[in-house]
């Protein structure tokens, strides 16, 4: 049982702790730490960006969901990799770089004033601490499962998860994150597909084959689970729409997503990263879902539940080195998301909340000194609740839904019109709807529309469009910025 852990431990000692040793003392100022001096090449941007939204959602949560929804859950990575990441690299990220901002809240401040920037920074930090708590739990769960329960989940697996996430970025900041992510992305894709290939070999050796898997689901009248393009209402309303809305909106307004984008050498490098980032993100989930489909066709593994199905399959049926490789792949996904969120949160707290709101005369040297302690504080803010309570799904959606009105207000303010009254009314009303639908869902809300994201999205879109049409405001920020730049050039 210890062999897989030894292989994984060797990997993380070499890559993660080795990067800590390498970068210690090489990062000299806050710009080096938060943007890497804007030195990242396109492939580093691609790998870092591909891993930011990956996390437990594309791995553990997705293989668990496949037990009920089948291969159709693969629409999740298709949407994130095929829609959200291109939007981030071709439009949203380049827009922010064009404005020459260091954080996302600064762009909100440029549109609607300091108070809106502070609100966005505070809300972003608070809600994404909840997401980071989920990644800490997932990382701890991976450690627990792959040690066969030899290490207690609480507190030790959670504490180990906290330590691993911390060392991912604590010494080198975005440079360390980007280099480790580039290595991890490569290992994760190769390793997970090798494990899937070994699973195919195991199926063939046990005279079961893929036909045996298909026969198992056919006997249960669940052959549809093997079809990707089967559009059921559950798949449409529980996976496709929520993933599209929550990633395109909530993820687009979080600082963590733009960590590698702000650190790129140029906007051209960001745009060049589009194809690789989309491919890495889109390909990453396939092996985990297919291994889960196989695992749940084995009665002894299915009896243990979907949550640990892939882990139990690996422990029982694959060689120890492959199990260790799978552990590396799984932890690479969860650690990358957790570390990018913590780095993004620490940057927003120091640059927006402390410096811009509280201490405008704070020197860059002071900001730099505060970065590492703040990352630890952000990590503890996610780790401590994880020790005492599991994530609750409605609260998880509640956290994400705070970003929906922010996104539509930001997008309209960038490309169409900036109206402060319209922005504030939209956000206040949408947040009220979010609270009501999360904690006092109306009894008349039908089926999936009882989820808070549906009314919050509808209210946000309608209000920001209608109010901007009737209330006074300025031209969109991008139009004004480009006009000012053209005027300077003339």
Question: What would your notes on this structure say?
Answer:
With 490 residues, the chain is mainly α. 77% of the residues lie in helices and 1% in strands. It contains 24 helices and 2 strands. It has helices at residues 2-23, 30-35, 42-51, 60-69, 75-99, 104-112, 114-146, 153-169, 173-205, 209-219, 233-250, 259-262, 267-272, 274-284, 286-295, 299-302, 309-317, 320-358, 364-388, 393-401, 403-415, 420-439, 453-470, 477-489; strands spanning 417-418, 474-475. The chain has a two-stranded antiparallel ribbon with strand order 1-2. The protein is globular, with a radius of gyration of 23 Å.
Shape: globular
Topology, number of strands: 2
User: Which structural class should the secondary elements be placed in?
Assistant: mainly alpha
Q: Could you name the ranges where pLDDT drops below 50 across 5 or more consecutive residues?
A: none
Order of helices and strands: HHHHHHHHHHHHHHHHHHHHHEHHEH
Percent of residues in beta strands: under 5%
Main β-sheet, spatial strand arrangement: 1-2
Number of helices: 24
Distance between the termini: 70 Å
Question: What is the averaged pLDDT score?
Answer: 89
Percent range of helical residues: over 70%
How can the largest sheet be summarized? 2 strands, antiparallel
Rg on CA atoms, Å = 23 Å
